[in-house]
Amino acid sequence: MRKKLSKRGKLYLVNGICFLFLAGMYIFRALTRQDTPIFILLLIMCGFTFFSLIIYYLSIIADAISQRYKDRMAEEEKKPKTK
Q1: CB 29 within 8 A of CB 78
Q2: φ, ψ at 51 (rounded to 5°)
Q3: What is the DSSP letter of 36?
Q4: Whole-angstrom Cα distance, residue 81 to residue 83?
Q5: Cα dihedral angle (55, 58, 60, 63), rounded to 10 degrees?
Q6: CA of 23: how far to CAs of 11, 19, 83, in Å?
Q7: What is the pLDDT of residues 31-74, one digit of tens each?
Q8: What CA–CA distance (Å, rounded) separates 16 from 43?
Q9: CA–CA distance from 76 to each of 36, 64, 69, 71 (Å)?
Q10: How far apart are CA 25 and CA 30, in angstroms?
């Protein structure tokens, strides 16, 4: 059975793919003599990385809240109900 990819691994993978895509786009545009300033591509990469980090941290926060809720529900099931 295959091991699942961690959130950090997914973050690195997605950002690596984005980097390779932008590097390929830069090389392709350079070969076709359509000069694109590297600054624009760096801004795109920084923006993509920034937003992917936001999603990464929101996912971690959501998992923590979900786990806390599950733990609380498990504790309430263990307690005997008194009326």
Answers
A1: no
A2: -70, -30
A3: -
A4: 7
A5: -120
A6: 18, 6, 67
A7: 888 877 888 889 999 999 999 999 999 999 998 898 877 777 77
A8: 15
A9: 60, 18, 11, 9
A10: 8
What does residue 66 show for φ and ψ, rounded to 5 degrees?
-65, -40
How far apart CA 29 and CA 23 sit, in angstroms, is: 10
How confident is the model at residue 54, as a pLDDT? Answer: 95
Question: Which tokens is 75 given?
Answer: 């504790």
pLDDT at 82 over 70: no
Residue 68 has, within 13 A of its CA and on its CB side, a CA count of 6
CA 64 from chain centre, in angstroms, equals 16
Give me the pLDDT at residue 81, please.
66
